[in-house]
């Protein structure tokens, strides 16, 4: 009877591992996607799962109309929206950080390396011109 209980425990352990590695992250991803789709509004720049970039022009119950070019509109399902790009572009602009004076290395502080200078000088020298063949 002890062997049967051990098998059941191992099955439960493997199910727990599978739940935490596969089911739970997928559920979170699905929830985040549905939240993003509910946040869609007219004028948002989006990318579809097919790779089309466009601007949302109309929103229905389960569909979105996207303008992908001037006077070219496409209607697709809301679940076909991969991401909203207009929000991401604003966040990327905020990430620019200017270097502080401590991060800048001036040439006077840098130590010269003699071997690197010799290699660089040898690389800059022009090769000898070709000689005429002897006949």
Overall description:
The chain has 135 residues and is of the alpha+beta class. Among the domains are: 38 residues; 55 residues, Roll (SH3 type barrels), CATH 2.30.30.30. It has 3 helices and 5 strands; from the N terminus they run αβββββαα. A 5-stranded antiparallel sheet has the order 4-3-2-1-5.
Q: Tell me, rounded to a whole number, the average pLDDT.
A: 80
Strands side by side in the biggest sheet: 4-3-2-1-5
Output the CATH class name of the domain at 41-95.
Answer: Mainly Beta
| The CATH topology of the domain at 41-95 | SH3 type barrels
Features:
43% helix; single chain; 3 helices; 5-stranded antiparallel sheet; 135 residues; SH3 type barrels
Quick gist of this model?
The protein is α+β, with helices and mostly antiparallel strands and 135 residues long.
């Amino acid at each position: 009877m002890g062997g049967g209980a051990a098998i059941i425990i191992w099955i439960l352990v493997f199910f727990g591992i599978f739940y935490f590695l596969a089911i739970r992250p997928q559920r979170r991803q699905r929830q985040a996607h549905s939240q993003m789709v509910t946040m869609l509004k007219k004028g948002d720049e989006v990318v579809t799962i097919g790779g089309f970039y466009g601007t949302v022009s109309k929103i229905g119950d389960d569909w979105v109309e996207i303008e992908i070019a001037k006077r070219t509109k496409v209607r697709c399902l809301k679940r076909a929206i991969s991401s909203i790009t207009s929000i991401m572009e604003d966040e990327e602009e905020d990430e620019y950080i200017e270097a502080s004076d401590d991060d800048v290395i001036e040439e006077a502080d840098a130590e010269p390396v003699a071997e690197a200078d010799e290699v660089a000088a040898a690389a800059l020298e022009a090769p000898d011109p070709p000689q005429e063949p002897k006949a």
